[in-house]
Amino acid sequence: MVLLENDSFLTELTRLFQKCRTSGSVVITLKKYDGRTKPMPRKGHSESFEPADNKCLLRASDGKKKISTVVSTKEVIKFQMAYSNLLRAHMDGLKKKDKKSKSKKTKATQ
């Protein structure tokens, strides 16, 4: 997995969306990140680790290529605006759900 800066993550995410436009999907995950790279031990050495500031870890994958970035609290507003614009621009290829009419439903129950 490649850890990128915020701007380069958005450009790579745009490329992933364009590559998967006709077929395929892009999976995006978001979680809280405290800066740890090693797992916390269960018992014994309970070191109290307090992060200096809250961060978010974003990951995106198309099944073959994985990218990620860490967004700090100072940059979250700027990143959220750019991220939401990117999602709006590339979410136009979604399939609409078929709606079943009520008349078909009532005929089936009678």
Automatic annotation (TrEMBL):
Chain coiled-coil ranges:
none
Q: What is this protein called?
A: Signal recognition particle 14 kDa protein
PANTHER family cross-referenced by the UniProt entry: SIGNAL RECOGNITION PARTICLE 14 KD PROTEIN (PTHR12013)
Q: Does the keyword Lyase apply?
A: no
Gene3D superfamilies recorded: Signal recognition particle alu RNA binding heterodimer, srp9/1 (3.30.720.10)
Q: Thylakoid: is it a keyword of this entry?
A: no
> Which GO biological process categories is it annotated with?
SRP-dependent cotranslational protein targeting to membrane
- Record key words, sorted: Cytoplasm, Phosphoprotein, Ribonucleoprotein, RNA-binding, Signal recognition particle
What species was this sequence derived from? Oryzias melastigma
Q: What's this chain's function? A: Component of the signal recognition particle (SRP) complex, a ribonucleoprotein complex that mediates the cotranslational targeting of secretory and membrane proteins to the endoplasmic reticulum (ER). SRP9 together with SRP14 and the Alu portion of the SRP RNA, constitutes the elongation arrest domain of SRP. The complex of SRP9 and SRP14 is required for SRP RNA binding.
Q: Which SUPFAM superfamilies match?
A: Signal recognition particle alu RNA binding heterodimer, SRP9/14 (SSF54762)
Give the similarity note: Belongs to the SRP14 family.
